[in-house]
Amino acid sequence: MSIQGIDEITYGAQDLDTCSRFFADWGLTLVDEAPQRRVFECLNGCRVVVAHSDAADVPPGVEPDPTLREVVWSVGTTAELDALRTRLQDQPGYVDDGERIGCTDPNGLAVRVQVTRKRPVVLTSAVTNTWSERRRINQRAPAYDRATPVEVGHVVFFVTDLAATAGFYEERLGFVVSDRYPGRGAFMRCAPEGGHHDLFLLQPPEPRKGLNHVAFTVRDLHEVVGGGLHMSRQGWKTELGPGRHPISSAMFWYIENPAGALVEYYTDEDELTAEWVPREFTPGPTVFAEWAIKGGIDGHTRRQVNAEAPSGRFMTDKPKS
Ligand SMILES: [Fe+2]
């Protein structure tokens, strides 16, 4: 039994029009529209649903809207889904409609599992030249006018009982801990082989429940930057980014999301196997980000927000003072 990743997420929010404009700018494709529901897809078919807070068929959130109400994880086959039935059916909030099963995790979030509806995609990504490897020959590196995320790569929640919630994902869904903030956080991946984390659970010093962020996988660093610049030009606010996470090695850019909390473009996280030995870290700003730009980069001036705009001359053209 092996969970593969995230197949679908559902937000609960009041202002569907603003959320729709946001996710269109974010690079998702609107595939279905109803008065109380907008459905978007990433490149591989991973779905992002925004449901109105009054919609009757959406599970309750762990905090007031706007927030994430439901996460649907995927397996590869119906046999794996059958195996999970026996592991989840004694859990609180158990549901089973034949194609999608689930329950409520110890933090109160609706967790669902289905046979994946995502499609394989083949994409061209940037090739990097390093001192030891020259792989990009007679070819320019890409630049992106905007991002088109491949899928939802991970979700991050504030939890009030880290041990119980992490234990649920380990014991019931087969997740593996990649790294820890002892007593404070657990980076978890769906299976022994995979990206550094599909789920990060964070117990703040004053424990509370809620969404921290949803992260969307993009192809390469240049798409992180191109996507962040586009969001800036569209008027959306950067919380932090671009920057780099030292724990997972990923490059990131976080934007404030009208559907709840933050969304992240990220790329180049570490790929792990069963040989990986979990490490322990003490939380802190430089552990979270090796470096980062607070408030982001202005999409028009291409300089950090609030910095002096370039005058049209090179810095070196400035007269000596
Ligand atoms: Fe993240």
Explain this structure.
- With 321 residues, this protein is of the alpha+beta class.
- The model has no long low-confidence stretch (mean pLDDT 95).
- The chain contains five helices and 20 strands.
- The structure holds fe (ii) ion.
- Residues 154, 156, 213, 215, 264, 266 line the site of fe (ii) ion.
- Fe (ii) ion (FE2) is lined by residues 154, 156, 213, 215, 264, 266.
Low-confidence stretches: none
Order of helices and strands: EHEEEEHEEEEHEEEEEHEEEEEHE
Mean pLDDT: 95
Rg over CA atoms? 20 Å
Seen as an oligomer or otherwise, the chain set is: single chain
Shape: globular
N- to C-terminal separation?
67 Å
Which sequence of strands runs across the widest sheet?
A: 19-10-11-13-9-14-17-16-15-20
Bound molecules: fe (ii) ion
Number of helices: 5
Helix % is 10-25%
Strand count? 20
Q: Structural class from helices and strands?
A: alpha+beta
Q: In percent terms, what proportion of residues is strand?
A: 25-35%
What labels would you give this structure?
single chain; 321 residues; ten-stranded mixed beta sheet; eight-stranded mixed beta sheet; 34% strand; binds fe (ii) ion
